[in-house]
């Protein structure tokens, strides 16, 4: 007689990995800003990633431990993870490919097919070009879901380090009419939100006409609730992406990108009336969609602070908000200037009087437009400190002398508290 023996299905190791935990550990790989290229020969200006590099990053995450459940870690798998040549093992590559497949299925990455340079007779007219080697290395790009998830996790970590469990809007001392009541009622005035205090309104009518049915209401009987007036704010993050942000053995740009993503998530979920824009400045400056921030890498070389302020002003002057501010994150003094004819004047040696005077004139324009500038310095050399202190005095903003590790804490504390202070 034929028997069929059933055993307990324990599942595949790749299916037991928590993808959110994996994406969090791959955050630095996804957001790399060119710092690794200085030491490993990766192209600095190529924001794409190869699938082979992703396999290596996932393998490093697995080797760090805690991603694979202990009950699924067989002796053979444990030995494979400890093997320096694990990437050459076929079983390990199948495990890594399965994890990449799951990341794609869950929408964290978008794999792309290998690109092959077409032959000259198939290229557009006038663009024959020169012969190139075939690029058969499959690539991928991270999705908006990954960017949003990394921003949320960064925000969660930052608020946890601040000891904050909840946060609200920008409260002021003024009272207005709205949905959330926070003060005594007052008579209705034209233009108020019709958030009626029903009991006070009826009491006014009864006091005027006496207790009878039906109760006749007049315009003067109407009473409305008062609530705390909450202002809106337009913010531009002015992010320095000059080459110094990855020099001197420290990656300062990737933490700044993380903080900008966390601030974007905070505003979208907790301050829906606020707006956030992003401006990068280097030899020149340009506005960038927040969705493209994760792909940005450092470069070019110089620091054109004035052009960044110009672009930020144009954005803020379009916004009809109660408060307008620039959050400038930098690690270097201004060293470049865009001339009237479009040429770039550059001088990286000391504080160039011409560059500084023109930059401070742009700061003065921000002051006249009512735009506050809060500066977060990732370096503490004398010339930068002196320049930022001048900006702070002119715009009555705040200066934070910080590091890539404390940048997020200070920035979020400033954004949520709105208190005037300096941290040295």
Key attributes of the depicted protein:
single chain; about 425 residues; alpha/beta; Rossmann fold; 3 domains; 6-stranded mixed sheet; 3-stranded antiparallel sheet; 13 helices; about 15% strand; disordered C terminus
Briefly, what is this?
With 424 residues, the protein is of the alpha/beta class.
Secondary structure elements and pairings:
Layout lengths: L18 H7 L1 H4 L6 H4 L8 E2 H13 L11 H8 L7 H16 L3 E4 L26 E4 L1 H19 L7 E7 L6 E5 L10 H12 L13 E9 L1 E8 L12 H18 L4 E7 L3 E4 L16 H14 L4 E8 L5 E3 L5 E3 L6 H16 L3 E6 L4 H14 L3 E3 L5 H11 L7
Parallel strand pairs: 7-8, 7-10, 10-13, 13-14
Antiparallel strand pairs: 1-3, 2-3, 4-6, 5-6, 8-9, 11-12
Helix pairs in contact: 4-6, 7-9, 7-13, 9-13, 10-11, 11-12
Overview of this protein structure:
With 424 residues, the chain is α/β, with parallel strands linked by helices. The protein has helices spanning 19-25, 27-30, 37-40, 51-63, 75-82, 90-105, 144-162, 198-209, 253-270, 305-318, 353-368, 382-395, 407-417; strands spanning 49-50, 109-112, 139-142, 170-176, 183-187, 223-231, 233-240, 275-281, 285-288, 323-330, 336-338, 344-346, 372-377, 399-401. The chain has three domains: 13-116 and 134-142, no CATH class; 149-168 and 232-417, von Willebrand factor, type A domain (Rossmann fold); 177-230, no CATH class. 37% of the residues lie in helices and 17% in strands. Helix 7 (144-162) crosses helix 9 (253-270). It is flat, with a radius of gyration of 29 Å. The model is unreliable at 38-48, 115-136, 164-181 and 419-424 (pLDDT under 50).
């Amino acid at each position: 007689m034929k028997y069929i023996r059933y055993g307990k299905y324990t599942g595949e190791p790749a299916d037991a990995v928590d993808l959110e935990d994996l994406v969090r550990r791959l955050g630095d790989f996804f957001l790399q800003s060119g710092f690794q290229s200085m030491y490993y020969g990766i192209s600095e200006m190529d924001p794409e990633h190869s699938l082979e590099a992703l396999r290596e990053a996932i393998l490093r995450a697995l080797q760090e431990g805690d991603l694979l459940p202990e009950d699924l870690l067989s002796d053979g798998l444990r030995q494979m993870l400890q093997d320096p040549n694990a990437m050459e093992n076929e079983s390990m590559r199948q495990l890594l490919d399965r994890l990449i497949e799951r990341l794609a299925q869950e929408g964290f990455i978008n794999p792309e097919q290998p690109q092959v340079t077409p032959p000259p007779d198939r290229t557009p007219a006038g663009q024959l070009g020169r012969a190139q080697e075939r690029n058969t290395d499959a690539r991928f790009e991270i999705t908006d879901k990954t960017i949003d998830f990394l921003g949320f996790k960064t925000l969660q970590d930052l608020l946890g380090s601040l000891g904050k469990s909840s946060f609200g809007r920008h409260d002021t001392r003024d009272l207005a009419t709205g949905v959330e009541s926070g003060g005594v009622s007052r008579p209705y005035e034209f233009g108020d939100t019709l958030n009626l205090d029903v009991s006070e309104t009826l009491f006014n009518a009864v006091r005027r006409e006496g207790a009878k049915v039906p109760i006749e209401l007049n315009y003067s009987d109407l009473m409305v609730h008062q609530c705390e007036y909450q202002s809106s704010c337009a913010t531009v993050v002015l992010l320095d992406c000059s080459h110094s942000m990855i020099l001197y053995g420290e990656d300062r740009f990737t933490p700044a990108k993380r903080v900008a993503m966390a601030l974007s998530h905070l505003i979208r979920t907790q301050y829906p009336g606020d707006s956030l824009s992003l401006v990068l400045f280097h030899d020149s400056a340009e506005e960038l969609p927040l969705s493209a921030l994760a792909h940005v890498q450092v470069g070019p070389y110089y620091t054109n602070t004035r052009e960044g302020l110009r672009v930020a002003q144009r954005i803020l002057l379009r916004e009809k908000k109660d408060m307008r501010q620039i959050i400038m994150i930098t690690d270097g003094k201004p060293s470049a200037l865009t001339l009237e004819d479009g040429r770039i004047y550059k001088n990286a040696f000391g504080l160039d009087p011409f560059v500084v005077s023109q930059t401070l004139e742009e700061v003065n324009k921000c002051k006249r437009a009512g735009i506050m500038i809060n500066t977060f310095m990732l370096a503490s050399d004398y010339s930068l400190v002196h320049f930022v202190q001048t900006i702070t005095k002119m715009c009555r903003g705040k200066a934070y002398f910080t590091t890539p590790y404390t940048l997020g804490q200070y920035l979020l504390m400033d954004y949520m508290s709105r208190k005037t202070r300096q941290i040295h």
